[in-house]
Amino acid sequence: MEEPEPAGATAPPPGLRSLLPPREFLCSRKGQLLLAESVLSFIIFICYIASLAASSFMTAPLLEFLLALFLFFAYASKLNEKFKGLHWPLMDFLRCVTAAIIYFAISIAAVSKYNDGASKAAGVFGFIATIVYAIDFYITFNDLVTSLKQGSSDSPEGRKSE
């Protein structure tokens, strides 16, 4: 005869563990990109705080960190499926494009204008973040084009032409 499982074994215990994103999302490409963006933005923010360029460049990495963290938890908790009024791929695409441009510009300025090690480190991490954000906006752009093509074939004008 099989022994019954204890009542607590079927569900994870409530608490801090319930705040963690599901493993499927962490293993997905979008989850890994958002996690990398969050970590890089936080590292760049810390580097700028420790550098001479703190007053000039500190705000952009902080905002990008908060936006990436928000989208990470929004996608992990499937808010994009619950709130259909927002066009999530377009919002994510615009965030990635602006972040890539901003990180590229402030990284060039930090590396060329400031001579301390923290500014140079922030600039190098900024170039890495530029690449990560560029990869993310390329992937998001392809998803956006696919969703727009599917949306146009569902519209009445798309059905008339077929």
UniProtKB/TrEMBL annotation:
MARVEL domain boundaries: 25-145
What are the subcellular locations of this protein?
Answer: Membrane
User: Is Cytoplasm given among the entry's keywords?
Assistant: no
Q: What is its main location?
A: membrane
Q: Which GO terms describe its cellular component?
A: membrane
Q: How does it sit in the membrane?
A: Multi-pass membrane protein
> Which InterPro entries does its entry note?
Marvel, MARVEL-CKLF_proteins
Q: Could you tell me the keywords of this UniProt record?
A: Membrane, Transmembrane, Transmembrane helix
Annotated membrane-spanning segments are: 33-51, 57-76, 88-110, 122-141
For this entry, the protein name equals CKLF3 protein
Which organism was this protein described from?
Corythaixoides concolor (Grey go-away-bird)
The gene behind this protein is: Cmtm3
